[in-house]
């Protein structure tokens, strides 16, 4: 169960770009939670999964001796879900998902792209956490911060776009 969990249903076993694969698995799951519940539910689910993941990763690292194994992608789920819970904090029904006016789809995709950027480039504090913090907190921490940064940036870009639209 632990290996299934930390590899996000074995998506982390993808031979190429397991982090991107894990994030791609996380995106539609997070979007479904936003559609059927709300951003608070997604945020709390992210928090709960992060706490469980930290403990699970600590156990794995203790047993294997490997820190931040690339096959561990539960951190991508937490980061992506934090990005989504911050970014499209709107309620949409199933019929409204593809409407570009409400920003749900655009912000979701933008959050994905920005999260992958922050997770790969690891600017500022994200990189510092990745390099200096050990154990499950280190593995999860950089993705959580990257998720928040992506969500905030996505929201700012969307709001700027709306402002530009009202000026024209």
Q: How does this model look, in words?
A:
- The chain has 168 residues and is mainly alpha-helical.
- The protein has seven helices and no strands.
- The mean pLDDT is 93.
List key phrases describing it:
168 residues, mainly alpha, globular
**β-sheet strand percentage:** under 5%
Rg, alpha carbons: 16 Å
Q: How many independent structural domains?
A: 1
Q: Quick check: average pLDDT?
A: 93
Order of helices and strands: HHHHHHH
How many helix segments?
7
Q: How far is the N terminus from the C terminus?
A: 54 Å
Number of strands: 0
Approximate shape: globular
Q: What class, by secondary structure content?
A: mainly alpha
Largest sheet, in brief, is: none
In the predicted model, the low-confidence regions spanning at least 5 consecutive residues are none
Secondary structure: helix percent: over 70%
In terms of topology, how is this protein built?
Layout: H1 2-6, H2 18-36, H3 39-64, H4 74-86, H5 104-121, H6 124-132, H7 135-167
Helix pairs in contact: 2-4, 2-5, 3-4, 3-7, 4-5, 4-7, 5-7, 6-7
Can I get a quick summary?
73% of the residues lie in helices and 0% in strands.
């Amino acid at each position: 169960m632990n290996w299934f969990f930390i590899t996000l249903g074995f998506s982390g076993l993808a031979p190429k770009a397991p982090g991107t694969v894990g994030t791609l698995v996380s995106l539609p799951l997070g979007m479904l939670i936003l559609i059927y519940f709300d951003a608070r539910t997604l945020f709390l689910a992210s928090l709960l999964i992060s706490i469980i993941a930290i403990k699970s990763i600590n156990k794995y690292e203790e047993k294997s001796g490997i820190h931040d194994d690339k096959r561990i992608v539960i951190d991508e789920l937490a980061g992506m879900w934090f990005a989504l819970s911050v970014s499209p904090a709107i309620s949409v029904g199933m019929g409204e998902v593809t409407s570009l006016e409400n920003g749900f789809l655009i912000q979701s995709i933008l959050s994905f792209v920005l999260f992958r950027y922050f997770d790969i480039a690891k600017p500022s504090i994200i990189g510092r956490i990745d390099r200096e913090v050990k154990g499950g907190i280190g593995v999860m921490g950089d993705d959580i911060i990257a998720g928040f940064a992506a969500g905030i940036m996505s929201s700012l870009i969307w709001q700027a776009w709306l402002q530009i639209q009202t000026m024209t």
